[in-house]
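Quick look at the format.
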Amino acid sequence: MKKLLFILLAFLAFANGNAQILDPAKWTTKIEKKSETNYILTFNTVIENDWHLYSQFTPDGGPLPLEIIFKNQKGNFTLVGKAKESKTRTAYNDIFEVNETFFEKKGQIQQKITITNPKLTEIKVDFNYQVCKDVCINIEKSFTFTIPAASKAAEIATIPTNLTTIDSANVDTVVTNTDANKEQVVTPEKVPVLDTKPSKQRGLWSIFFIAFLSGFAALLTPCVFPMIPMTVSFFTKQSKTKAKGIRNAIIYGIAIIFIYVVLGFLVTWIFGADALNALSTNVWFNIIFFVLLVTFAASFLGAFEIMLPNSWANKVDNQADRGGIIGILFMALALAIVSFSCTGPIVGTLLVEAASKGGIAPIVGMFGFSLALALPFMLFAMFPGWLNSLPKSGGWLNTVKVVLGFLELALAFKFLSNADLVLQLHFLEREVFLAIWIAIFGTLAFYLFGKITLPHDSPMTHISVGRLSFGLVVLAFTIYLIPGIWGAPLKLISGFPPPMTYSESPYGVGNSKGSSNATAQILPEGAHLGPHDLIAFEDYEKGLAYAKSVNKPILLDFTGYACVNCRKMEDYVWSDPAILKILQAEVVLISLYVDDKRELPKSEQYVSKETGKEIVSIGNKWSDFQITKFKANAQPYYIILDTEGIMLSDKPESYNSDINAYKGWLREGIDRFEKVK
């Protein structure tokens, strides 16, 4: 009786959640006559915020590119060139290791055609594409353009038909032919969307804090630190009153902030946020920046000095003698020029990193950097007694500069790695990258312990406690990196080295099969080794039969080969020991790939009763299964089922990087199975 009651409650809960079909791209189309036989087909889309619709030019190996199929082309019309796209954005995807190209917010695709059959009355076009945010959706849409034989109107609006990924009762956008030059858009009530949790991305606050720490590091270099007491003493002694000295120092600090923020604004304004973002993923840009960072590192290590022309500093110094606010502004500019050999490499690195985030990130980055640079001048002017507590300038300033040089050198190889990943050259695979970092940070540790000296170092009879402590931290980090060569995940630096799949041995040096014992097991019929060597089924019926035989609940995983967040969940959540233990021992994993292009046998092909779509591939079958049974179309999408295929959890789970929350969701479904079995 309890089991019957539970099944009834689960059914009611499922019935309440049956409107989770997502369709974030709304389409309108039109056909424009250019001559008696030439036409332009235009597809316009409006995309919901934060969603990406992938372009037809996204390379293979990543998210699914847009595929345009002209169904009745043969003998009726020819295509004039490739379909043209409006503005897209390109960004490097470190999960798939490719540059992905996609539309944001809106997009337009145009295709020129030449009609060869004068009796042609309509053109049929299918779109297959993928949209992603926290989840990914594979969508297929059909469009029909009508060409009246009599009038051949200049512009004929059309509507998408056979909307295969939404409820057939809901039409996204209807375009009616009310006028040759107008489109009337009717948008029905929106379908409720699945409540998903946003992925954690580095925001402007993170950029600000990183920039602030970078400014503090620049402050401790030999180009800037000695300027603090000199400049503050100048303001306090030359001003007639203490209040005026404080005011001038504050103006000086604000001027420093103004100069660097203007620099950030100019970078954003000249290049544009989107252009910078695209540039940051460009192969040649990454190679050029690698060379620049190596050059900066060599300068910091003492090979040579990078300086702006002395004439610039002299001209600015002359202007600083004018006094007043203008003179103070030029004093701040003089500081920026004189300290360029130390601040230039840091500012350059920071600008590129901030620019890669797009938007106003370069401005925010320069504000954080300059604020850290300006604060000491303002604070010591307010409290001049603090100057006595400042450590004296000396060899420790050059040590700071050398440490920054090592950090610049390590960061340089990240940019070279980006280029290598995009080109798939396999010159800088994970093991080689980690070996280089181990060498760099190991050498830095020896330097801090005084075993290595560089050109501008002062003679040492001993090392300070602070230097020894920092050396121990660097040595510990170096030792932490070493197991990475043998396959350790190194989560502390996740995102910096190439992924584990981009290596000579994906399971680590000397281990071709990994540490799991799963490879030695006899796999159940229809099963294979999935992520982390988990036993997984790719066929629902076979997985269900196996779950019955072992009396375990099912983790049903709707996924895709080209689903970014599916891979993130597998890499960062499923890999957690607590989660992995559950997946290995307590559930039967069934992973259904909705983008599997393998064709079904003719006897298994059918027309979906839910969407009216022809189901011809394995991916079509599982996508239709998800839509029909669970009223959803997004991936990743996780459901806990009992051995009868009945949902156990209150609601399905989607992308969720919170390991504890995901574990709680799994535990809830498994515990319910144990109670009712």
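Next, a different chain entirely:
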Amino acid sequence: MDEIKRSVLRSPADVRGFADFDGPLYYAPTGFIDHADDPNTLPLAGSRRGFSALEIIRRREGGGAESMILPLLALEGWVQNSGRVDEINNVLDRLMAKRPEYAGLDMASCHVMGIINVTPDSFSDGGDYNTTADAVARGRKMVEMGASILDVGGESTRPGADEVSEQEEINRVVPVIRDLAADGHVISIDTRHASVMEAAIEAGAAIINDVTGLEGDERAMEVAAASGKPVMLMHMQGEPGTMQADPQYDCAVLDVYDYLLDRIESCERAGISRDRICIDPGIGFGKTLSHNLELLSRLAIFHGLGCPILLGTSRKSFIGKIDPKAEPKQRLGGSIASAVNGWRHGVQMIRVHDVQETVQALSVASSTSIV
């Protein structure tokens, strides 16, 4: 029961039905266009991209959700009828506000994050850069190709991956981070273990990227808060080994949104301010194909959390479910298509294996499209 049914609004009564609803509502910007060229749009997260409408979503009794599209030109009247003036003003403030710099990067632009897996068993490139020298060379090449961030990981989180000791993970990533950070590059450490976070930060990592949203290790929140570093909070249902067994949601988009909001608020209580937080909806982590596609179609809803958005779709299995003949390294087309979709929804960072091709695709998309 996770699909969002879009209502066909045939009469004023249909619109009033949403206005009279007394439960929580969710707001996804849509109708994207270049804000600088259209006075009837509002800026999305302080960028040139604008939105001309809101998709207003509510949960349905018994499961699932339904929505309506409301053009901004009709928003004022609906807001007055709904009695949600303060709520809508707060939502619009979060959707429009320019995001502060994140790890020194301007969040009005879309940045490419290059993946460096120092592992023998990652799902797509395990063993390709399994030595320090190979991984460092790969990172330097990615920066030349246009990567703004290098995401270094020493543990595979694919379903069924072998467990790795924290010391082994440290041994894999620290030399790579130390060399790349010494070059002046922005490095994120992809780990769910507090001890690895500490070692990586000492080696020069600028960002903590945790697939468990700082929940996988009881010390993770404390370490992240004390570090003063920016954090990336991802949604994952279950554990890596079993997450794809039978993932279930009432409504995937709204459930992920609520989870990430809760994690942001937990971080704030622990001393991690919102301007240090980036969120990631976790494509492929405890989600079916339909869950992933629903999330990809409504990525812009996550701008309502007031944080930069990281999207990771590169070579993932949902592409293989759409094109069953494509092995991981044959999924470049799907990876680029989903990256451009993320750019269209205003995401600020895209995590990829194929940096040069993605940078080129985003450059062409931004040069040839008003959205």
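Confidence is low (pLDDT under 50) at residues 8-13.

See the schema section for token definitions.
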